[in-house]
Amino acid sequence: MDIASGYWNVPMHENSVAKTAFTCTYGLYEWLVMPFGLCNAVPAFERLTETVLVDLKWRVCLVYLDDCVVFSDDFPSHLVRVRQVLTRFREAGFKLKMKKCHWGRNQVAFLGHIVTPSGILPNPEKVKAVMNVLRPSDVRGIRSFLGLTSYFRRYIPG
């Protein structure tokens, strides 16, 4: 599931609203919800999703920012869990980006990995990108390549 315009679900504190003011040809405007780009937007939104799903996280679902994956052992329990998460989202006023939501899947792409009933695999698209990267020609390029490939270190034996 993907929460639509996630940051806009975080109300601005009344003392901070004036700090978001901007002007244009139509007048002065202030944000009443958190706009994209604020330095504390990511932790504030993460804290909100943690609060909304506090007792479901790790037991029913995995959440990272605006992405949520519901997991289960069988389809009937999956429906119950999806309903629990959707109920929490509705109560919090979250809306979902339906184009990015996938329902009842046996495997799903999540944070650059493929999550399946048998385990976690590297996303083939990410592996292809690594395979097509240009050969590094300087120290900076080597460091960059090592950082890129270290993302997959859990899949490399030895």
Automatic annotation (TrEMBL):
Domain Reverse transcriptase residue range list: 1-115
Superkingdom, taxonomy of origin: Eukaryota
Coiled coil residues, start to end: none
Stored CDD domains: RT_LTR (cd01647)
GO molecular function, one term: RNA-directed DNA polymerase activity
Alphabetic keyword roster: Endonuclease, Hydrolase, Nuclease, Nucleotidyltransferase, Protease, RNA-directed DNA polymerase, Transferase
One of the GO BP terms on file: proteolysis
InterPro entries with a match to the protein in the record: DNA/RNA_pol_sf, Rev_trsase/Diguanyl_cyclase, RT_dom, Viral_Replic_Matur_Polypro
PANTHER family: POL PROTEIN (PTHR33064), RIBONUCLEASE H (PTHR33064:SF37)
Protein name (Swiss-Prot/TrEMBL): Reverse transcriptase domain-containing protein
Lineage, uppermost ranks: Eukaryota, Sar, Stramenopiles, Oomycota, Peronosporomycetes
